[in-house]
Amino acid sequence: GVCDGHSRSLNSIPSGLTAGVKSLDLSNNEITYVGNRDLQRCVNLKTLRLRANEIHTVEEDSFFHLRSLEYLDLSYNCLPNLSSSWFRSLYVLKFLNLLGNLYKTLGETSLFSHLLNLRTLKVGNSNSFTEIREKDFAGLTFLEELEISAQNLQVYVPKSLTSIQNISHLVLHLKQPVLLLDILVDIVSSLDYLELRDTDLHTFHFSEASISEMNTSIKKLVFRNVQFTDESFVEVVKLFNYVSGILEVEFDDCTHDGIGNFRTLALDRIRYLGNVETLTIRKLHIPQFFLFYDLSSIYSLTGRVRRVTIENSKVFLVPCLLSQHLKSLEYLDLSENLMSEETLKNSACENAWPFLQTLVLRQNRLKSLEKTGELLLTLKSLTNLDISKNNFLSMPETCQWPGRMKQLNLSSTRIHSLTQCLPQTLEILDVSSNNLDSFSLLLPQLKELYISRNKLKTLPDASFLPVLSILRISRNIINTFSKEQLDSFQQLKTLDAGGNSFICSCDFLAFAQRQQALARVLADWPDDYRCDSPSHVRGQRVQDARLSLSECHRAAVVSAVCCALFLLLLLTGVLCHRLHGLWYMKMMWAWLQAKRKPRKAPRRDICYDAFVSYSERDSYWVENLMVQELEHFNPPFKLCLHKRDFVPGKWIIDNIIDSIEKSHKTIFVLSENFVKSEWCKYELDFSHFRLFDENNDAAILILLEPIDKKAIPQRFCKLRKIMNT
Fold first, then answer.
1. Which of 109, 123, 360, 657 has minimal Cβ neighbours within 10 Å of its Cβ?
2. pTM
């Protein structure tokens, strides 16, 4: 139901909008006209933004069908007039912004009488809006926020705002303060919070008669981008005294065009800043600061102030005498100023800020932690100290601190280690955004530890922090934590460990995913807890990551694989032994060697008529009968015998192969002894390699004695085949 059409260069409201649209944003376009039919089908629309267009015409019934509309923004267009008919059916409208148009008044009749549920209203512009009349706000009884931009306001009819019985927050943009008191008289009894913006109070004069008898309800007064002089500042102080309900005053981005000469301005007749308890000053500009008087003339006004904030205003010193006058001060914030140890010594002098409990010196020019602690020893009531964003760099071994210190903020101070310098009475410690790589400091009373954005690899040891209940340790380099570690923090209620680089091991995932109670302890769980490794789950939430069985039971898997390999090797060995696998491997190697030889030796390489393969046990018959008969034949045959013609030192396999290849024939003398001889079988197989590879009849068999066919082992299949021929 959300339609976002902002900054699309549209020059009209798009057609085709239906009842399904509940939020429509057409801001920052070039729309000039809103017609009766443009939005008539958007009956369920609750939010309509038409800000920053060029709308100059809105027809009477343009919003008639938007009875569910709660938010309407027509600001910064070109509307020259406003019409009550636009709003007559917007009974549930809560927010209406009409700022920055061209109208001069809010119309001839009451615009808002039908808007009974309106809570936020913004009207006016910086140029042409010049009149506020009695009927303008008729019908409105309660507003949470009313903003009126009337920099050029010329006419304010008395009681124009009295019809609004209760206004929580009123924002007034007034260039001159001429009509300010008239407005203040009307709202002083119905307003809680007044904010004055962009006003030059040089000519402001407070009339006691106009407001002294009024029952005031204003509790907070804010001046934003307002200019004062010494004289007008005194007039504002008078206002504080007569509007007795004011408890909080704030000056934001204001300018004091004076030199602080308050002595001659009857300030001595004013004893206090009314009932003001909280004073806030941010970005105060004093163009003539180097001519500025001391502030002794206003010291007496500060006695009842309990909370003071002076931020980003180039404060380098709070005079000792002023500090001593702030007798009720409980909270002092001097953030983003120029305070150093030298000036702090004067500010925190003896009897200064006797009841001060909280001191904030964030982002000043403090450099020595040891000296800062010593200078604050005069503050007997101090319990909370914020000295973050100062460049301390290192921490000494020992320090002195006020005896009641409970809370200390040392974040962003570039320290790289913690020492016994920290007070043992601390209950809250913030050391975030530093260079710490460990935490091994005993702090027996510490309840909250903030140590995010450091370089810690593990959770702190729980024995150092026996009563810790809150631990913020996000954005470190922690890769895991265990159930045992968490259980060791017996009082831990909140742990923020998100944004670390978690190694999603099986143990860590099992702990993180199965502990239902973990979600109640871990802050930002599960979205801020993501895996960094293993790589295939990187970026996944710890809660969603899943690892395979092999990753989670690696030792068992490795053991099983090793056992399987061992059994496979054992089985292979048994099979090799039973099936003569070793013999086959030897034969394969010999065959490969033979295949590397030339298929047929050149004719000139034939040296023998025959190679004789026989068992050594048949040598008598072979050598004394067969060899003698053949070698003495006419013509004689030249035979190759292993014991006579093999080359000494040459591998026996190579000798066999070479002898067979250099012989025309191979004579096999078969016997029972031949069958039992391994080398004889090699010779037989090599001869048959030639028989099959070269397709010639190179083998001659001589059966020396009858051989039982069953006596020939099965693996000698070639011999068995030959015996059958």
1. 109
2. 0.74
